[in-house]
Design goal:
4 helices, mainly alpha, single chain, two-stranded parallel ribbon
Length: 78
């Protein structure tokens, strides 16, 4: 089975801050029942630079990244 969805930084932030409208929240919850989030290494870096206020936010963020499949950057050869 291939990757269906690649989460961008804003999607991850909205998810973590529970800012999705109800229908998007249900879609995301249903999606996460069957597969883990997939993010790029760039998104991982952007999330790690995201300004969080309290230690709890850092733990939630760390858990999200740990639970995600992170697609590393690579060099294409011709």
């Amino acid at each position: 089975m291939g990757i269906k969805y690649l989460w961008d930084t804003n999607t991850a932030i909205y998810f973590l801050q529970q800012q999705f409208p109800p229908n998007a929240e249900k879609f995301t919850d249903d999606l996460l029942k069957d597969e883990r989030p997939v993010i790029s290494a760039s998104t991982e870096i952007e999330l790690l630079c995201w300004k969080t206020v309290i230690e709890k936010d850092l733990q939630v963020l760390s858990n999200f990244i740990s639970d995600s499949l992170v697609i590393e950057l690579g060099q294409r050869s011709n």
